[in-house]
Amino acid sequence: MKFATRAIHAGYERDPATHAVMPPVYQTSIFSYDRLGDEQPYSYSRSANPTRAALEANVAALEGMQYGLAFGSGMAAIDAVLRATLVAGDEVIALADCYGGAYRLLTRIYAPAGVTVTFLDLTTRPEQLEDAIGERTRLVWLESPTNPLLKLVDLPRVAAICRARGVITAIDNTFASPYLQNPRDSGIDIVMHSATKYLAGHSDVILGVVCTDNEQLAARLKLVQNSAGAVPGPQDCFLALRGIKTLALRMQRHCDNALAVAGFLATHPAIDKVIYPGLPTHPQHELASRQMRGFGGVVTIYLKDDSRAAAARVAERLQWFALGESLGGVESIVNHSATMSHGSMPAGVKQALGIREGMLRLSVGIEDVDDLLADLAQALA
């Protein structure tokens, strides 16, 4: 079954009683028993809910994996992965330029709890893992492309190194979505999504999903999901399922528009640098072409005037790019990463990574591209 068909049909078999094409919103907290001691798949919606189960099966199918688990946010999904794989005294190796929220969770929650957190640049030097993995290393946390610098990780190479040493690999696949990249094919053990972004795609839900093929990891994740209870409600799951039905169409338009925006900005006199994996000037363009089925909907730019005032001036003049924290919706969004998505990172860390005051992250939506180009032109004038 091809991707677009799976996106529409996977995870739900029509109710034989009603023949409903869409799964119902099971807006209930409890499911009754006929007899004391009966076993049944649904009893309490924190543990399981049919609408949530349909979403979990759908995303797992899109990633080509057996198990899917939904959480109340992307951060709750990351937290579940960490809880399921780490205890005090263990080490997690994380990508140096990971999402700011993941950085905050690792450094301010897990490090004080006794987990050793090591940050490495695995985008340009994946061989560092060979020497970095120690006796207590349990997990390697990845992003590809990264947020917001759009660097790539050679996933098969990193997965092979980790597998040889018995270390679990997990990736935040939000920026690529399953439409552009299935990390399982490269040997990655756990795939996580902030379904708030491209999966749901309409800026109307907060939701995370984790997928795996490993039965033991799935059982651990299920234990965390049920015990900690950071689960989404059925209405949010329904909205995410509805959004996923158009994922293939939306992602292709995101990619097409982003390539046009990147090409336009690459020659603009007010722009110092454009980062987009689809441009031949991107240092990992060849890896992106080999590892992904498209280049994504995010473009990162550096203004020649590298100041917060200049970034604010451009962002606030944009008409069709909303100034906001998120990405991946049908509408275009501009983000000042230094103060927004990565605001929790220390200034020195941001500076070392290249997250500067004059940098803006553009989540290119599916509007008419001519309108987007005209909007950027007037904002940069």
Automatic annotation (TrEMBL):
Positions carrying N6-(pyridoxal phosphate)lysine: K197
A GO biological-process term: cysteine biosynthetic process via cystathionine
A Pfam short name: Cys_Met_Meta_PP
InterPro entries associated with the record: Cys/Met-Metab_PyrdxlP-dep_enz, Cys_met_metab_PP, PyrdxlP-dep_Trfase, PyrdxlP-dep_Trfase_major, PyrdxlP-dep_Trfase_small
Cellular component GO terms, alphabetical: cytoplasm
Keyword Endoplasmic reticulum assigned: no
Domain of life: Bacteria
GO MF, one annotated term: pyridoxal phosphate binding
Keyword Transport: no
PROSITE patterns named in the record: CYS_MET_METAB_PP
Cofactor needs: pyridoxal 5'-phosphate
Swiss-Prot/TrEMBL keywords: Pyridoxal phosphate
Family statement: Belongs to the trans-sulfuration enzymes family.
Name of this chain's protein: MetB
Taxon lineage: Bacteria, Pseudomonadati, Pseudomonadota, Betaproteobacteria, Neisseriales
Gene for this chain: metB
